């Protein structure tokens, strides 16, 4: 069985230094580099503290039964990017509302990229005690890290995480995209383009909203033309500039009569580009997005979209997490919130050609 001495010899420090790090003793300074080496050795050598050590650590944290009234948040998106996106900020608002109602606060907010740093990961696992964790965004590349965190914080709930190992609060992205494209088809469109971003593997084809677009097109027997697909990699500015390029490149050729954008933030600049090139919306080119951000109803023309209950996603995630923290019963399944077609002027025109 691995001992503190084994850890100390592997790292090249004293046993007392190893003990201070493992027991979160901050009475004497230990550098971040040394802490990182110690925690790496703990994992590699499979060290498990004995029962008396466990009790000592729990006593220092005010007892294992005593809630901290704090939760952690780990995101697959950079928090700066999420905070600039009205879709995500509305989800955060729902989370914060429910946290406030129950008297909880966020103890920390990290990205998975930050937790690939050994020292940061060890802080989450061993030093920053919380009652539960919210996993925000897809975890295709980080399922192993989620499983590791789950060993230390059993109460975990995901928001749009698509993880098979935790409760996930989500909406059906594929079905929402199909609803949008089916609306365009019902309006008489047979030439429908797509603007979106990459999926879990960095390719357009793996993204759920593109999959929904593709399914609807195939079911209707409509051609998917590569020259009408724009992969912005979720960079909003590219939606405007690359839409301009697509329209200019296909002058004198068949153009799409409708565009389905994988988010309202991508639909709006693309629609502006079409208007600047002299196209009438929706008579020449119709547009529809997904998310129903607040701005979409105030554009000219107002944008058709798929409403996603963003605020409710955040509320439901925190309510579910609190229920998990108060119970040993933690089933893992996906809860899908409903979506709704919102028809506005940008697509409210029936083609007869």
What's the arrangement of secondary structure elements?
Blueprint: H1 4-11, H2 15-22, H3 32-45, H4 51-60, E1 70-75, H5 79-84, H6 86-102, E2 105-111, H7 112-115, H8 118-127, E3 132-136, H9 143-152, E4 156-159, E5 167-171, H10 173-186, E6 192-196, H11 208-219, E7 229-231, H12 236-249, E8 258-261, H13 264-276, E9 286-288, E10 305-307, H14 310-325, E11 334-337, E12 340-342
Parallel strand pairs: 1-2, 1-3, 3-4, 4-5, 5-11, 6-7, 6-8, 8-9
Antiparallel strand pairs: 10-12
General description of the model:
With 353 residues, this protein is α/β, with parallel strands linked by helices. It folds into 3 domains: 4-60, 434 Repressor (Amino-terminal Domain) (Orthogonal Bundle); 70-170 and 311-338, Rossmann fold; 173-308, Response regulator (Rossmann fold). The chain has helices spanning 4-11, 15-22, 32-45, 51-60, 79-84, 86-102, 112-115, 118-127, 143-152, 173-186, 208-219, 236-249, 264-276, 310-325; strands at residues 70-75, 105-111, 132-136, 156-159, 167-171, 192-196, 229-231, 258-261, 286-288, 305-307, 334-337, 340-342. A 6-stranded parallel beta sheet has the order 2-1-3-4-5-11. The protein has a 4-stranded parallel beta sheet with strand order 7-6-8-9, sandwiched between helices. The longest helix is centred in the first third of the chain and has 17 residues, at 86-102. The protein is elongated, with a radius of gyration of 25 Å. The model is unreliable at 51-64 (pLDDT under 50).
């Amino acid at each position: 069985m691995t001992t503190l001495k084994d850890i100390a010899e592997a790292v090249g420090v004293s046993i007392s230094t190893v003990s201070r790090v493992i027991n979160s003793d901050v009475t004497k300074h230990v550098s971040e580099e040394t802490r990182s080496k110690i925690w790496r050795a703990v994992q590699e050598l499979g060290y498990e503290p004995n029962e008396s050590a466990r009790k000592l650590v729990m006593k220092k944290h005010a007892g294992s039964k005593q809630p901290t009234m704090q939760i952690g948040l780990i995101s697959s998106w950079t928090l700066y990017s999420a905070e600039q996106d009205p879709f995500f900020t509305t989800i955060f608002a729902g989370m914060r509302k429910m946290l406030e109602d129950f008297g909880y606060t966020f103890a920390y907010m990290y990205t998975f990229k930050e937790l690939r740093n050994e020292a940061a990961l060890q802080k989450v696992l061993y030093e920053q005690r919380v009652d539960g964790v919210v996993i925000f965004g897809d975890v295709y590349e980080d399922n192993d890290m989620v499983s590791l965190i789950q060993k230390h914080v059993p109460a975990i709930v995901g928001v749009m995480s698509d993880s098979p190992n935790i409760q996930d609060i989500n909406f059906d992205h594929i079905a929402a995209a199909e609803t949008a494209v089916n609306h365009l088809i019902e309006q008489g469109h047979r030439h429908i383009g797509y603007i979106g971003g990459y999926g879990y593997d960095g390719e357009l084809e793996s993204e759920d909203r593109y999959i929904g677009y593709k399914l609807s097109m195939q079911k209707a027997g409509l051609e998917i033309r590569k020259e009408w697909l724009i992969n912005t990699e979720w960079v909003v500015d590219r939606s405007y500039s690359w839409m301009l390029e697509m329209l200019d490149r296909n002058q004198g050729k068949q153009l799409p009569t409708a565009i389905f954008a994988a988010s309202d933030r991508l639909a709006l600049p693309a629609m502006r580009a079409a208007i600047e090139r002299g196209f009438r919306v929706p008579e020449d080119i119709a547009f529809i997005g997904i998310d129903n951000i607040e701005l979409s109803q105030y554009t000219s023309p107002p944008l058709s979209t798929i409403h996603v209950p963003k605020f409710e996603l955040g509320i439901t995630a925190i309510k579910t997490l609190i229920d998990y923290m108060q119970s040993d019963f933690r089933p893992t399944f996906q809860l899908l919130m409903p979506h709704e077609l919102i028809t506005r002027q940008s697509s409210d025109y029936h083609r007869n050609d």
